[in-house]
Amino acid sequence: MNLRQFLGSLFLSVLLALSPVSGAVAGVRVKDIVSIQGVRDNQLIGYGLVVGLNSTGDSLRNAPFTESSMRAMLDRMGVGAGEETIRTKNVAAVLVTAKLPSFINPGSAIDVTVSSVGDAESLQGGTLVATPLYGADGEIYAVAQGALVVSGFSASGQAAEITTSTPTSGRVPNGALVERAAPGNLDGEDNLVLELINPDFNTVIEVTDRINDFTAARYGRKLAAERDQRSIIVHRPKGLTNARFFAAIGSIEVTPDIPARIVVDERTGTVVIGADVRISRVAITHGGLTVSVTEDPQVVQPLPLSRGVTAQEPNTFVDAVEAGGALGIVEGTSLSQLVNGLNSMGAKPSGIIAILQAIKSAGAINATLIVQ
Fold it and tell me: Does 366 reside within a domain?
């Protein structure tokens, strides 16, 4: 094969690799779209003190609970503070939160988040004192301690101040040691209940059929049965642990059915339109009225040799401009046609949100509109 033939075959291979295959849909693994019932994280919370701040901690006059906590800590350590007033600003009261993963054992380390509850200016450079973390049942599951990592900072002078991110919140990586095992385990369970992260009847049937095809080929019988639009019951084969069984069925690829939804976030102007959203043929006009008010006060001087005084006379200009609202027809038989129709009207994100809400009120959107 000469160089020209080699380059030609290489170019053809690249084209075949890049060209989309008709009817091919990328599948996802079962373990990426389901969770096991009873296997979840647990929330932990605790109250503690951050010390070592550079005069950016709580002012004890405005945060009396910080002073009480500091006195109690010193008493436990055998240092009596007496009745004297404490004036330090190097201490801040904080809430410590963390997630206790499932199946975690004592001695493991987890990350914690530390947030100020007083009027501290910054937690930069602080160290969290040993803080017990409680679960919903009131039991201590971990103890947190360590130096804080704070991404934000604050600096100020006499006439200016700058703040980046949030200096009153930080993290302690691997800052908590687990003292008690997380509740719940899969040992001894004969059935696994799989729950879809995004419930859908078609997806439940798809996952159930794919699992049954796999178990029938490997174990000789179908082991899965759908229960509702969210959950699937899978029977564990004898002689196999739940961990190995879920590892086997979790790698099965399925094609989930995505519901037709439009998600709108009015605060940020974000609009997300699903691929299966369809809009019936509608005519839309969208325009805006802009009113500008300008104040241009005039100074009036008194006449010569008069006893008048200099005065200020108000002068206001009001201008109203209404943008042209051409009537356009939008019909979305596909996502690309819908987007092109909205873009052709020149609508901004706020305008698109208003248009979608109006179309939904007219009953022309064949999808669920979620406004956040």
Answer: yes
> Is 7 within the bounds of a domain?
no
**Nearest 10 degrees: Cα torsion 325, 331, 337, 341:** 0
pTM: 0.66
Q: How many percent of the chain have pLDDT more than 90?
A: 29
Q: Is residue 339 part of a domain?
A: yes
Pair (52, 165) in one structural domain: yes
- Please tell me the total count of domains within the chain: 3
The yes-or-no verdict on residue 25 having pLDDT over 70 is no
| Nearest-angstrom CA–CA distance, 279 and 32 | 31
Over the stretch 220-251, which tens digit does the pLDDT of each residue have? 999 999 998 999 999 988 888 888 889 999 99
C-alpha 283: how far from its chain's center? 36
* Domain-terminating residue out of 178, 197, 225: 178
Token pair 């914690």 is found at: 112
Residue 13's Cβ-side half-sphere holds a number of Cα atoms within 13 Å equal to 6
pLDDT category, 111, cuts 50, 70, 90? very high
Q: Phi and psi at residue 19, in whole multiples of 5°?
A: -75, 135
User: Can you give the pLDDT at residue 331?
Assistant: 58
Helix axes 201-219, 242-250, angle to 10 degrees: 110
Q: Any idea what the Cα angle at residue 48 is, between residues 42 and 51, rounded to 5°?
A: 135
Q: How many CB atoms lie within 10 A of CB 324?
A: 8
CA–CA dist 84, 2 (Å, integer): 94
Same domain, 79 and 206: no
Domain presence at residue 92: yes
The secondary structure of 156-179, three-state, reads: ECCCCEEEECCCCEEEEEEEEEEC
